[in-house]
Amino acid sequence: MMQSVKYWLSEHPSIVNFRWSQSFGSTWSFLFSAIAVYVVTAITLHVFLSLILPKRRRVPLGPIPAIHSLCISLISVVIFVGILLSAATEIRYTRWFWRRTKTITTPFQWFLCFPLGTRPSGRVFFWSYVFYLARFLHLFRTFFTILRHRKLTFFHLFNQSILLCMSFLWLEFSQSFQVLAILLATLLYSVVYGYRFWTAIGLPTACFPFVVNCQVVLLGCNLVCHFGVLSLHFLKGGCNGMGAWGFNSVLNGVILGLFLNFYVKRHLRKRNADDISGHGGSSSSSARSCSSSASEIKGE
């Protein structure tokens, strides 16, 4: 069984012989067109609904969001296992090359820093490509939010567009750190979207902001790893794709700033609501917390 899984996820000829330059969606024109279509479609849908429906009228979607969450969770699990197996195989086959470059000496350093001259081909880049394609599936949550909750924010459009752009840059410039970033992201997505599916089918929610806390943990891990990449770049003679890494770091910083602003405002709003309520008891506080968590899962 394990051998079969390993073959299909890391040894299949399509994975081993993958080439980014020969793949669908590998051009800059495709990326910019996709982002433009996404932003224009989302804004158009939001404006259109605002014109034809009352402000509080929501469009029922039935089980579609739950199915979407389940699909993303399962796809994330497959990507996580696939890139982990592929990374282990790649490390085993390329250790001899490390001694010549002297850029990296341990597997963990390889996760943070690709040797100079690395090309976007082979096993790990195949799964990076699958992760890039899976980002398009994430975009559907924007339209679910518009249809069900009649909400569209700049942060949501910006965040989704930037994440798609970063996934493209990972491949285009063979950027260092992407393997570890994909492992962290897919682990988070498998848990978060599994939880969203759990709540969408009517099962109980956590009495704390589960999704937001998971995002904070991911952002914190990414921040620590970025310092690791920078250290290896200067101490070990250079990492591949550092130009793209620098650009992505700026984008990550912007996203982090916007997210922390949202997180602080949410915390202050909740604190003010608790003060106004006059500390009405632990049971009511717990109920408000659960309600807040449920709203967060639904995208409110």
TrEMBL record:
UniProt GO molecular function: fatty acid elongase activity
Pfam families linked: ELO
Subcellular localization(s) per the UniProt record: Membrane
Main subcellular location of this protein, as a coarse class: membrane
Mode of membrane association: Multi-pass membrane protein
The encoding gene: LOC111314817
Protein name: Elongation of fatty acids protein 3-like
Annotated region (Disordered), positions in chain: 276-300
Annotated GO CC locations: endoplasmic reticulum membrane
GO biological process terms held by the UniProt record: fatty acid elongation, monounsaturated fatty acid; fatty acid elongation, polyunsaturated fatty acid; fatty acid elongation, saturated fatty acid; sphingolipid biosynthetic process; very long-chain fatty acid biosynthetic process
InterPro entries: ELO_fam
Stretches that traverse the bilayer: 28-53, 65-88, 124-140, 152-171, 177-198, 210-232, 244-264
Alphabetically ordered keywords of this record: Fatty acid biosynthesis, Fatty acid metabolism, Lipid biosynthesis, Lipid metabolism, Membrane, Transferase, Transmembrane, Transmembrane helix
Top-rank lineage group of the source organism: Eukaryota
Bias (Low complexity): 282-300
